[in-house]
Design goal:
about 100 residues, mainly beta, Hepatocyte Growth Factor, single chain, about 40% strand, 5-stranded antiparallel β-sheet
Length: about 100
Amino acid sequence: MTLYASYMTPISVQDLHQEGNEGKRCFFQHFATSWMDSGGDAYDLTNQQVTSVDDCELLCCEHAECQSFTFWRGRTCYLRASSNTPRPNGDSFSGIRLT
């Protein structure tokens, strides 16, 4: 089993309106085994140690400028002010903010 097995299915815009999602503040398109190429260090907002992908996603949701995140297997979460192209890498997981 891979580290990101529970996140292999990305959500779609239709998922935003499914029952049970009323309380969610943010939704993300997920990209398993990828990192988010933000276009340079100028778009990196912050990075910090977290315990899970969910924690990283929550940090992005709580940061007003965050448009994407990357969670690395070493448990470092990078928040980005842009959302460019996901780049393949088996040691990472990324997401682009939809709302």
